[in-house]
Fold this sequence. Notes:
The protein is 37% helix and 18% strand. By secondary structure, it is an alpha/beta fold. Helix 11 links the parallel strand 13 and strand 14. Residues 1-22 have low confidence and may be disordered.
Amino acid sequence: MINPKYKKRNILVIVGLILVLSNCGWEKDYKRAAYLSIQPDTDLILAPFPFNIFDREARDAITLSHYSKEEIKNILEDHDLSWEELKNQWQLDAEDEHFSKEVNYTSHYTQYFYDTEIPIWIYGPKWIRNGQYSDEINQQHIPSIYGKILDFQFKNTIDVSYLEKIFQNEKVKPEIIVTVVVDQGGRQLYKAHKGAYPFLEDLKNNSAYFKKAKVAHLESHTAVGHMAIGTGAFPKDSKIFSNEIYTYADGKVLHRPVYQGKNKDWDLNEMQVPSFADEWDLSKNNEPVIISQCYAARAAVGMAGHGKLFSPISKNSATEFPDNDFVYWQDVKNLSWSTYNDAFLVPKSVQKYNLYQFYLNHKKDISTHFEAKDPIDLIAKIHHFQGSEFQAKMDGALFRDSITETIINTKKDKDGITDLAYVTLKATDAVGHLYGWESKEAEQVLKATDKEIQTIFEYLKTNFGDNFIMLVTADHGAAPMPEISNGLFLSHEQFFSTVNELLPESERTKRSLVKWVAHSQLSLDRDLMKTYQISEEAIIQKIMSIQVNDRKFFRKVWKREEIPNLSL
């Protein structure tokens, strides 16, 4: 008979060991991602506590979100959160099966599971063996899987020999490889809304389905995820490591979006590695058609690469002169689709897809949470349009029209040269940011997105028979809405203000100890630190002292030298 005193002590020891191991696990994940993403002038890596959001002040709009009691209880259970606490906090009637709540905004950038766990489906029975696989796989593996199928070595090729079991022994090459990205479509979105994606659920049985795919880099952001899918590179090599960079001058926080140069013009050289499409296109004398479509430029560019501005790194290509590819995104000021003409083309099909006219043409067919009185009202509500079924339907229809125009009508669908077509269905991202991926609005958009993927698949079957590959994945997941998770929100304004308290009061609004910061990486102004004798340790302590609602925001701050080589 075990003494109860010793039994209790043993249980405490076991619990303690579990906590220690889980603590080590999250740190190892963060440090590995940091190593794969760290920039030449990065000094510190920032890790918030789980569910906390460090983002620019984007909380000026309150959104009314709708929820199902059953779904919310399941979500809370997955995150070890309490339904009773939420019910009391939101003052819910215990009998209500459906309820609403005004919410602000959520985001994604961390190495926690809700941001990094993503699914990957690969359909193409000629080349890919069906099955549900537990192998770990990252977005960076996707181009190398394509390279294996096409017998093509490119700059960022990584070893996929451990995935040999998924490949069929087929010598004929596919006529087209289609990559579909469900933006913010992490596994948590699918867990929250079971039954909302019948096509993708069925596709698990007809494809290679990877249930342990993961974002392996910092940050889990749109630009970085799409760059990974398009190039196979990690941010330490590509130099694409965030959606935007924040600086401070004259008392104001400034931010520069990715691919935007100093003069607010396009700078594709910011991506310092070639994409798979860049190299494949050139190796085949510009014969392949390259299509990359997303309403956000940072996603479309990340998948496609450099287009006509690609500078070959070797002389092994069939030609030294790249051509313009079809890469395009939304110009929300004009409610139309546009591109960067120096590098890319838009298909003529975009002329049919003015956003307001599309809304008018389909508002009788689509019952959704979005309405607009006129074009000006639509511009004012653009993010809500982009987070609706209208955007999902438009994205799918335009993508299919673009393939028809540029490949099928030009007889390139049977020329024996593999074309590459990328599309991001981004309405899931917009609705997730605004309403929360836990909401009924997100469920509605997920249903519409699943339907568009099914329609794309059926379109490919009709036009390409069995001579195509279709891969479906996500660029990242997202945090639960802070109103649900009790997570904290920290703006960059507050961050700069707090750190600069270390400076003399007269200097705090002129310059900053932080040269730049994204969300996870930070560079220090060493000259300013030297001038005022401020140490790196003092800055770390100041960052760690930041509190929101009397709770610490950051869990850990690492120095550059504390990030070991933990490559995959």
